[in-house]
Amino acid sequence: MTDSRLWDDVDAYFISHLSPNDAPLDAALRESETAGLPPVNVAANQGKLLQLLAQIQGARTILEIGTLGGYSTIWLARALPADGRLVTLEYSARHAEVATRNVARAGLDALVDVRVGPALESLPKLADENPAPFDLVFIDADKGNNPGYLDWALKLTSTGSLIVVDNVVRGGRVADADDTAADVRGTRTAIELIGSHPRLSGTAVQTVGTKGYDGFALARVVA
Q: Torsions phi, psi of 218, nearest 5?
């Protein structure tokens, strides 16, 4: 059995027992596929991890950068209290339309605010609203802009907030100093910023599974 087949089988086992999809999540995946969205949503066990992190955090406010079809949005929003708030930023109007339908079908539209446009334009507008600090930020958008997203996450959070950056391994390319592709440079800069910033304490974890070889970074705002 190849490594990738083994990873798939183990993920399937874990998901079936610990984070099975339900009707709204299944529908979100189907609608996203039907609409032709790229199949890059988080895996079910990763979605459950996001939900658990938000619950452990006691999150009342969540910022998501990169909505796609709203699959991860649903996992995160389910961790919120009835008066919670999730703002999710999506570049593509078409993707946002799909996500809005999926979130509404899951009964979470009262909690979720889907905003359309380049995130680096939406984030200053969000900051102008002077929102309460976000308890959790999930960054899962174009990787070349990760440093900018991380910088805005710091501006929109406070001590104790948690920042999650997805897809930081890039199939191992993040450690290749000769790889100068935008996604690698952006990810590497974000990792180095987490490691050097006086307000952050973080780590990164490599993962394997149905999404291949990748990983995520966690950073806690400590000051």
A: -120, 135
**How many whole angstroms separate alpha carbon 59 and alpha carbon 22?**
23
SS3 readout for 154-194: HHCCCCCCEEEEECCCHHHHHHCCCCCCHHHHHHHHHHHHH
* Tokens of residue 168, six digits: 């930081």
Q: For residue 1, what pLDDT is reported?
A: 67
CB neighbour class for 139 (10 Å; exposed up to 12, middle 13-18, buried from 19): buried
Rounded to an integer, what distance in angstroms lies between the CA atom of residue 200 and that of residue 218? 10
The residue among 159, 137, 143 whose CA lies nearest residue 215 is 143
Please name which of 187, 89, 178, 177 lies closest in space to residue 147, comparing C-alpha atoms: 187
State the Rg of the chain over Cα.
17
Burial letters for 95-120: b for 16+ Cβ neighbours within 10 Å, e otherwise?
bbebbbbbbebbebeebbebbbeebb
- The sign one gets for the Cα dihedral 174, 179, 184, 186 is positive
What confidence tens digit (pLDDT) does each residue in 55-90 have?
999 999 999 999 999 999 999 999 999 999 999 999
Give yes or no for a contact between 139 and 109, defined as CB atoms under 8 angstroms apart. Answer: no
Q: How many CB atoms lie within 10 A of CB 164?
A: 21
Is the pTM above the cut of 0.90?
A: yes
Q: Do the Cβ atoms of 20 and 223 come closer than 8 Å?
A: no
What is the residue whose two structure tokens read 């501006």?
155
Q: pLDDT tens digits, residue range 162-173?
A: 999 999 999 999
